[in-house]
Amino acid sequence: MRPRKTEPYGLYHTKLNRRKDGTQTATQWMNVGYWKECNTFPEACEALASKVIAAARCVPGGHVLDVGHGSGDSLILHALYPSSPKLEGLTGITSNKDQYEEAGRRVQDTCRRSMPEINLQLYHGDAIFHPSNGPQASAHPLDPSSTLPPFTAITAIDCAYHFRSRNKFLQQSFARLAPGGFIALADMNIVSPRSPLRRVLARALCRILGVPWENMISPSTYAQQLIDIGFANVEVEDITSEVFPRLTTFLKSETTDSPQLGVAWWIMGEVFRVWWTICGGTYVIAKAEKPQ
What Gene3D superfamilies does this protein's entry cite (predicted)? Predict the structure, then answer.
């Protein structure tokens, strides 16, 4: 959930992480959530992350790359969730500096206490590898010439639709996945509106949400892109009905200590409502395997 492409994410979203009784949780989740059987924002966010992690089929002793991890909750879930296998390496990358620093503090503290043996590497930068980025580029986890172990799983929770472009990210991920490794994403798509006016509206909302229009493709086209890259066992599951209805209701009813922030959440809820009900917006879980 990213209102603009100019890195709007700070740490203000922590106020959304409340229990049903209104008390604050220790989590700092920020995604659209998977609201089936969930009643609070942090529950829904964790449910979406858990669904993606399960789709990625992480393996014991594996090396996982978590892209767009926000303040680190998905990294912590990778490391500590009871059904998650014990990993050898966990790598994260995010373009937001505030969240990179917050994730570093939180995740390192957690791993130091609970999983000191895990090799944790966090990077601040664009999800896409750009060779022109100078010395920093050589450390990018998706550098195709990297001598680091290939990843056995790559996850991207509610972020890839912002990338320029998502298809390039998928290509780079394919190159850095180990044979038999999986990529799994929670991602936004669109069933292209037939009405010219609705297409104009959809493009305008993409600008508000910081989403490159080229990423707004149908779920079936998304699946074909993965196949064209070389992935096998491609599945794209439409979960729109378990995301946008409850998300929009939650955001539009959200109140905080800051009236301005409460208004901002209401507006964001209305943007998602229009995106889903008028523009044909969809939400999917996509997963695919790099052939052996």
Answer: Vaccinia Virus protein VP39
12-189+217-240+282-289: CATH number: 3.40.50.150
How would residue 135 be classed by pLDDT, with cut points 50, 70 and 90?
Answer: low
Query: φ and ψ at 236, to 5 degrees?
Result: -125, 110
What is the spatial order of strands in the sheet that 151-157 belongs to? 119-124, 89-94, 63-67, 151-157, 177-190, 281-289, 232-238
| Token pair 């009784």: residue | 21
Which residues on neighbouring strands pair with residue 238, listed in sequence order? Answer: 284
Q: Identify which has the larger pLDDT, 3 or 176.
A: 176
3-state SS, one letter per residue, for 153-193 = EEEEECCHHHCCCHHHHHHHHHHHEEEEEEEEEEEEEECCC
Mean pLDDT of the chain: 89
Give yes or no for a contact between 157 and 183, defined as CB atoms under 8 angstroms apart: no
- The burial of 100, by beta-carbon neighbours within 10 Å (0-12 exposed, 13-18 middle, 19 or more buried), is given as buried
- Angle of the 244-253 helix axis to the 41-55 helix axis, nearest 10: 150
